[in-house]
Amino acid sequence: MKPTNEQAIELFKVCQDLTQMYLPIYLVRLDERTTRIYILAGQSFEVEILPNGRVKYL
């Protein structure tokens, strides 16, 4: 399964923002059940990218 174009663009932007804050990115996962991208960074920073490209900070 591949991410949508919107997800891929937002993934790049979010990863760039996280690394500019010097947060280590521990996990990037495309959940095949929900088709959402999940990112775990820093101690407890969580981000979810929906198939339409919307970014949710958890």
Automatic annotation (TrEMBL):
Domain DUF6888: 2-55
Pfam families: DUF6888
Top-level taxon: Bacteria
Name listed for the protein in its UniProt record: DUF6888 domain-containing protein
Organism per entry: Nostoc sphaeroides CCNUC1
